[in-house]
Amino acid sequence: MILTHGVGGRQDLPLPLEYVIAGAVLALVVSFGLLVLTTRRAAAGQTDGGQITGSQGPQVRNPRGWPVPRLGRIVDSTAWTALWRIVGLLIFAYFVLVAFAGPDNANNPIFGMTYVWLWVGIVPFSLLFGHVWKAISPARTVVAGLTWLRGDGEPMLRLPERLGYWPAALALLAFAWLELVYPENNYLGPVRIWLALYLAVMIIGGALFGEDFLERTDPFEVYSSLTARLSVWGRTPAGNLVVRTPLGNLDTLRPAPGLVAVVSVLFGTIVYDSYRDSPQWLRLVQNPALSGDTAYLISNIALIAFPLLVAGFYCVGTMLTGVGDVPRRALPAQLAPSIVPIVVGYVVAHYLSYFWESGLATLRNASDPLGNGGDWLGTADMPVSYFFAFHATLLAVIKVTAVIVGHVLGVWSAHIRALQVLPNQHLITGQVPLLVTMVGFTVGGLYLLFSV
């Protein structure tokens, strides 16, 4: 049976406390080493800089990359784009089939396809291939078709710039609520309604406001695009395909309103998902003195509170990093890309075995979409591999490594950006609050992942 829980939530193994302490100490040592290293490079005038500081903070540079013209011609061709549009439409058609003709039980593949393949799988696929959701999004395909029929490429309305990524942050929180809090998320009706509303809003908004609406409000596209910044595939300002280092791609992410909210929701919901399996939380919500409605209310409040706590801790740390004439209010958004590697690290650490096992179970169920004993894909009798369950030590090493690597990349990204706005006399002291913030994220995350 597939656990209808989009982002894991179970504890794959109890990791000894010494693992947690060792991981936290390693994060601290590596972080401090990066701080000293980048500071010395900055003092020697060897930083890979190039930003211009203005009244709104540092302007993001466009790092160079290695051009791949032959591959670029293929990827940018009409045939290649059409191919993946067709793939996206076929996947959408399958979703519609299982949503309306499939069985209303846990064997319906729509649950695994939504909670596992889409929500969790969007991270590894975007890391490997770049902006995958943008390529296969059925909403984008429908909007492109409507725009073509209208015969005018200009949008009817302009989306206010001040909205930024705020709609995407709210949509991401809404999906997290569906799969983490809503008690009937394992029934076909609620999932069908959520996906239908999502698609309707994206199509109507895209038809009115153009592609900018999808880039800033589609929760899956925003999530995929943020993760794709850590892939090796990038674009020059002219739109040419290049290969870059992951941090080079991350440096191209422009700050915008709501970007801090998006990364806080992504990180905060993972933290909430970890904490809700702890004995303390279970004792609270399963207290016989509490009614079901009260426990449900507490869960809703916690889902909102965790992203707010992440955002508050992060904003305080980044704003304390500002010294001298640095615009403190601009720093959280400027440094927000540094949270993306940390989010990706926790996704790998928290959901790896869940994605593997439930993803295979979904593939098995997908071969019988109507629940009548069919075998459309030839995988109906495929056994589910519990490889990680039998290799607990390997899983533990991967989890700790994912957290540490994500933290190190986040620290490096944050330090490089901070060095471009801090005055020379505060290159070290100005980054101490940022260092404490990052290490705090690591220590707290390791504790929640392995000790609760």
TrEMBL record:
The chain crosses the membrane at residues 19-37, 82-102, 114-133, 163-181, 193-210, 295-323, 335-356, 386-412, 432-450. Keywords: Membrane, Transmembrane, Transmembrane helix. It comes from the Bacteria. This is Uncharacterized protein. It comes from Nocardioides albertanoniae.
